Amino acid sequence: MNKLLQIKKDFQTGQIDKARFIEAMSAEYAYLFSYPEFLKDVNIAEIRIRHDGIVAEFNDPRISLYCPPGDMRSAPFEALNFNDYEHQEIQAVRRIIFKLGGSAARFIDIGANVGFYSLALAHYFPGISGIAFEPIPETYVTLKRNFELNGVTSVRPLDLGLSDKSGEIIFYSYPSLSAAAGMTRILDGPDVKEVRCEVVRLDDYSQANDVKADFIKCDVEGAELLVFRGAEKLLARDRPAVFAEMLRKWSAKYDYHPNDLIHFFQQLGYGCFIIDGSRLHACPVVTEQTKDTNFIFLHLEKHAELLADWVD
Predict the structure, then answer these.
(1) How many domains does the structure of the chain reveal?
(2) Residue 242, domain member (yes or no)
(3) Which domain holds residue 269?
(4) Are 114 and 68 in contact, with CB atoms under 8 Å apart?
(5) Residue environment code for 219-256, b if the CB has 16+ CB neighbours within 10 A, otherwise e
(6) Are 125 and 223 within one domain?
(7) Rounded mean pLDDT of 240-261?
(8) Are 304 and 210 found together in one domain?
(9) Is residue 264 one of the residues assigned to a domain?
(10) Are residues 24 and 142 in the same domain?
(11) Which residues contact 164 (CB under 8 A, 6 or more apart)?
């Protein structure tokens, strides 16, 4: 039982007297008072204790997220542990969206998890339209709760995965590390769960639902090449800016190298770039010395003006 509830129950049933009850509860409440100083240098404005969960509110972007119990690397916990969460990346994405039309831009969030990127863009560009794909049922519930918590209605959450084929497949999810979920088992954690999820090709979904994109964010723990193979027609037609994660150790689980994804985009007229503060640097190949794991793909023709302003 919850320790606070147990202490209260012990008092109510007469197992401890009033003085011991107050003392025991005070010891539990003491933990709360360690947080104000702890938050001074953290990009978390406040932590709210609600009847339906714990909510963390970021300073920038000013969004609120539920803290999934036990999910060690969810965005709020990452910010608490390391003072911020993907600050350089979200500011780069913000700059791209601004150049692509701001609130008039259309985006697709693939592997939305609990919605940090979708909610950040909805905050920076009120009314921006988007779709957030998240196939894992438990994570999708949190995603929807976060959209409701922030009053975001212009971005549509969908409980679907994306790949190079459509159908129902096994996903491997980890309650202690929800961001590691994927179509193959990338971790050997003891809490791994097998869940059946529906996946579609983005090209098929786009055609059936008249979806267009100016920007795509994709973070699917190694399956990025599969996702983009299933979106080749959309990429060729709309030429969106793309922000994608690429890790050698994860892509190897799907029998390809990040350079295969770079080559895929090069064939479509794109260049690959890494973020360095307020600048971008070309990254034509990933080597064993490459430390970056987040990359931006820009179309050399469509995004020529942005490249001229931003790339060294």
Answers:
(1) 2
(2) yes
(3) 87-310
(4) yes
(5) bbbbbbbbbbbbbbebbeebbbbbbbbbbeebbebbeb
(6) yes
(7) 95
(8) yes
(9) yes
(10) no
(11) 201, 226, 227, 229, 230
- Residue 93 is assigned to a structural domain of this protein: yes
pLDDT at 285 over 70: yes
Cis amide leading into 61 (omega within 30): yes
Task: Over range 217-230, report the average pLDDT.
Answer: 96
* Parallel/antiparallel/unpaired status of strands 241-245 and 294-299: antiparallel
DSSP 193: E
- The whole-angstrom separation of Cα 165 and Cα 185 is 19
The strand ranges marked E within the chain are 44-50, 53-58, 64-66, 106-110, 129-133, 155-158, 161-162, 167-173, 193-200, 215-218, 241-245, 270-276, 279-282, 294-299
Task: Note whether residue 16 is domain-resident.
Answer: yes
**pLDDT score, position 96:** 95
Tokens of 193: 């769960």
Give the mean pLDDT of 162-185.
92
Same domain, 94 and 239: yes
Residue 1 has pLDDT above 70, yes or no: no
